[in-house]
Structures are given as structure tokens and as C-alpha cells.
Design brief:
single chain; Jelly Rolls; binds calcium ion; 4-stranded antiparallel beta sheet
Amino acid sequence: MVGYQNIPADENTQATKDIHDFQSDQLNGGDHIQACYNFTIGNEKLMEFYSPYYPNKYPNNSHCIKQISAPYGYIVQVDFRDQFHLEESPNCDYDSLEVRNGPYGYSDLIGRYCGSDFPSIITSSGRHLWMKFSSDDSIEYTGFRAVYKFSPVESFNRPEKEGLHK
Ligand SMILES: [Ca+2]
């Protein structure tokens, strides 16, 4: 079987560590952390993340933050699969996925997404993306599944590779 991989036994240990690191970044406790886990941490092995409780409806009053950082020399691309459905509202003021082009909540806004139209592929200009999932106090949908990948910066500057020499 080509491509088959065993899941390492220490995965749970790593997940526990991730949760611990993650908890220290969050202001609210308990259920909130549990709900945000699949967004903030997601599945790093598959390079996926999800709205809280996906594929079930996301909870009300969620505020989850995620940052994706590619290695040096790479940019981040995020693509949505299977589902995208957040409560629609003007300017996505009720429920939203907010994406910023950098590592911070004040980095340049790429977009705020809601409704049921899939966003187009999101691409960072540097190696970081900052994201926030928010829901208000009523009306929930299933949210989304997102996949991300790291692409070398060179592939954007030079679409056709002419050779390996530098
Ligand atoms: Ca809502």
C-alpha cells in the first residue's frame, strides 16, 4: 500500500500539549475551549480545520482564533471543502469567518465571510494568516471544513521553472 501511514502512538500526547498551549491563550474556559479546538488546532496532520463542532452546527456565542504559519519561504493557502454555511448578515456582523493577511488581529483584512457561498481560495502574501470565527446569540448552521497548504514563494514568482540552477 503506497502512501499508507501509521498514526503515531504519541499523537494524543501532542494533542494534550496543544490543548494546554491553546488554553493559555484563551480568556474563557470550559465548553468554549472544547468548542474552539477543531478550529484553533484542527487536524494538523491532515492540515485541516473546522468550524466548532463541525459537521454539527456551531454553537452560539463562539469566538475562536486561529493562526497559521508556514515555514520561511512559503505562503499559506486555505481552501474550503464540503460545506460552507454561516448565518448571513450585512457585513457578516452576526456570524463570520474573518481572515487577515499576517499573524495578528490587526493585520490587513483579507475578508469576512458568511452565508452559503464558498469563499475563493485564500492566499497569504507572507507566511502567516490570522483567522477568527465568530457567532452571535442565535441561528446556527453547520459551518465549514477548510484545508490549508504551504506553497513555496518561488512558485508564485516564477510559474514556469526553467531549471534548478540558482
Ligand atoms: Ca448566528
